[in-house]
Amino acid sequence: MKTTGYAAQSADAALAPFDFERRELRADDVAMEVLYCGVCHSDLHQARNDWGWSQYPMVPGHEIVGRVIAVGNAVKLYRIGDHVAVGCMVDSCRECDQCRKGLEQLCRKGNTQTYNDKDRFSCEPTHGGYSKHLVVREEFALRVPDGLDLSKAAPLLCAGITTYSPLRTWNVGPGSRVGVIGLGGLGHMAVKLAAAMGADVTVVSRSKDKEADALTLGADRLLLSSDTEAMAEAANGFDLIIDTVPVKHDINPYLPLLDVDSTLVLVGQVGPLAEPSTVPLLLGRRRIAGSPIGGIAETQEMLNFCAKAGVLPDVEMIGIDQINQAFERLERADVRYRFVIDMATLPASPASAA
Ligand code: NAP
Ligand code: ZN
Ligand code: ZN
Description:
Blueprint: E1 2-7, E2 16-21, E3 29-38, H1 41-47, E4 64-71, E5 83-86, E6 89-91, H2 97-100, E7 112-113, E8 133-137, E9 142-143, H3 150-153, H4 159-169, E10 177-181, H5 185-196, E11 200-205, H6 211-217, E12 221-224, H7 228-233, E13 238-243, E14 258-266, H8 279-284, E15 287-290, H9 296-309, E16 315-318, H10 323-331, E17 338-342, H11 350-353
Parallel strand pairs: 10-11, 10-13, 11-12, 13-14, 14-15, 16-17
Antiparallel strand pairs: 1-2, 3-4, 3-8, 3-17, 4-5, 5-9, 6-7
Helix pairs in contact: 4-5, 4-9
The structure holds NADP nicotinamide-adenine-dinucleotide phosphate and zinc ion (ZN) (2 copies).
C-alpha cells in the first residue's frame, strides 16, 4: 500500500514529507487510516538519535488513533469502520513467559517497536503514526472505547499507559501519596490518572508558574524542586514517585522524599543519570526502579479506565506542517501538555504539498 507521512532523514534534519509503502495485509493484519497522532518526547529523542540506535529515514509517532479501512481474511477482533489505537509496540514473540502473561513490553525476544525497528517477518523498517496509514497485526491494535474523544485519546497510547502502568504496579489507590517529577506530557497524565485513582498527588516541578495548572489537573499541591526548605519539609512523605524528566539529571534531591520501602520509578530518561548516592537508599530502605510503557491488556484496561473516569490529556492540536516547531517547543518544555497532530492536515502526497 502506497502511503505518505513525515520523516527524519538524519539526526540533524527537520522532518519533511516522505512517500513510502506499507506492507500488503497479512491474514491477521488490520489497515487503518490515521486520524490523530500524539507527539511524545521520545519522538524527538529518536528523530535526533539521542539514544544512539536511530535508523533513517524514520517516520516517528506512537500515540496513534485511527479508523480501520481494511482487514486481513483471518481478522476476528475488528471490522472496517472501527476506531482503533496503536501505541509503542506493533508485535512481540507472543510465546515467551512475559508475552503469555500479557507483558509484551517485556518480551524476552524484544517487542517490535512501532517505528525505528524492523518487522519480525519481513525485516522491513517499521514506520510510525506521522503518516496517512498504518498496518498492524490485530492483537496490537487497541479498541477505542465509545465515548472517548478521538481528538484527545491519542496521547493515552504512550503518555497514558507509561504512567498508568507504574501506578498499577505499585498499587496506587485512595490515600496513596504520589509524587510526579516534571509536568509535561507524561507528568500531566500521571497527575490525572493518580488523582482519578484517589491518590494524594504532588507535582514536583522546576516551574512555579505551573502551580495553577497542576491544581487544575487534579494535583493537591506543587512542590518547587529548587525550594530546598520545602523539599526538606516534604521528606518521607511519598509512597511512589514517578520521575518523567527526559534528560540526564540528579535524583539525589528526590530520594529523601520517599517513605520507608517506597519507590522512585524512572520512566523519563533513557540512559545515564547523575551519580545517585546510596545513603538515602540504605538509611531509608528506599528503592529506585524503571518501567517501560505497559502490555496490551493493560493498555486496553487503561483506555477503558479513562473512558469511565473521564480522564483525557490536555491537548494542543497542530497541523503536520507545524511538527518541527512543536519539537523545538517540546525541547523547551513549552507545551501544555501534549501536542496532537490532526492527520487530516497531511497532504495526499509530497507532490501535492509542493
Ligand atoms: P515532556 O512533555 O517534554 O515533559 C518533560 C517534563 O520534564 C517537562 O515538562 C519539565 O517539567 C521536565 N523537564 C524537562 N527538562 C528538564 C530538565 N532538564 N531537568 C528537570 N526537569 C526537566 O516529555 P514527555 O513526552 O513527558 O516524555 C518524558 C520522557 O519520558 C522522555 O525522555 C521520553 O523519551 C520518556 N518516555 C519514556 C517512556 C517509557 O516507556 N518509560 C514512554 C514515553 C516517554 P517541569 O517544567 O515541570 O519541570
Ligand atoms: Zn512515547
Ligand atoms: Zn515474547
